[in-house]
Amino acid sequence: MTRKRFTASEKKQRHEWAVRQIDAGMGLSELTALTAETWGCSRRNVSDVVAKAHKDWMEAFDHQEINQRDLLFQQVGRLERIARKAENCGQYAAAVGAITALNRMCALGADQRGSPGHPSHRYR
What is the model's pTM? Predict the structure, then answer.
């Protein structure tokens, strides 16, 4: 049984599509499954595509080609959606986790000892 071989243009198209998905905030394991399903590739081939796309995305990020402010706001919006959906489904631990991640990411200080919400002294 022989498998269909993909052309260079098809590989480039998959690669660019994967980079766009990563840029939109999709996780790598989720992207691997979606790419295999969307493009009809084996998971082994897809993992190579996703790894290269992630590497290229990180290099672009390091070279400041990606607007970091836009990326921050995109992730803030994503965490807010996750917290809202989790709370609506009764998954309160997931909601708290998303809010905690949002707090740490934005460095609001509520997770730091000695901040107004967390006194530095303890009563016994």
Answer: 0.54
